[in-house]
Amino acid sequence: MGVAASKLAALIQGATEVFFAGMAEEGGTRRSAILLDAVDPESGGLCKIQVSYDRMNTVARRSMGQAKECAYILPAILQRPTAIFQGLKSEGDEDRRGVGWRCYCGIPQVAYRTDGSERSVWPDQVFLVFVNEENIAYNWRWERADQDDPRLPVDYLESLSRGLYDGNVQL
User: Considering its fold, how many domains does the chain have in total?
Assistant: First the structure.
């Protein structure tokens, strides 16, 4: 298990105040985020996406299911998306700290109930990860799937701008 996965797994232990080993940087300050690998739709290679510890702690306090989504589904969608869009048309999806830039879409292998127990994926749903222009994942959630293409969210043509990536093929 990698360092990032180990740190995310600590959230699943149910702690609301999470202290991660090895977080001190030079000068004794805490790092504010972990880095996850993600598909870079422009190069086809990998890029790094940040997830802040504050965001992870907030999500972990809501439910064990949401903590597991953060720990397992979020990295899976970033690394194996069914599609990536650039540009958001809906202000509700914008990051309050900056411009929403990309939306990673995918259907994970499993979903989680509120208590953290595993279940089959939610029917007719797709998981979305929103990333701002600074490569920070600021929101993620389940959304209804499009009837014509269940790999994409409903009304994706109205809410998302330009498709960049479709599975293993750049758009």
Answer: 1
Domain that holds residue 139: 3-170
Task: Write out pLDDT tens, residues 113-171.
Answer: 999 999 999 999 999 999 988 899 999 999 999 998 898 888 776 655 555 556 544 43
Tell me the CB-side half-sphere exposure of residue 85, using CA atoms within 13 A: 22
Residues 6 or more apart whose Cβ sits within 8 Å of residue 44: 170
Q: How far apart are CA 99 and CA 66, in angstroms?
A: 24
Whether residue 49 contacts residue 38, with contact meaning beta carbons closer than 8 Å, is answered with yes
Residue with tokens 């190069």: 43
Residues in the chain: 171
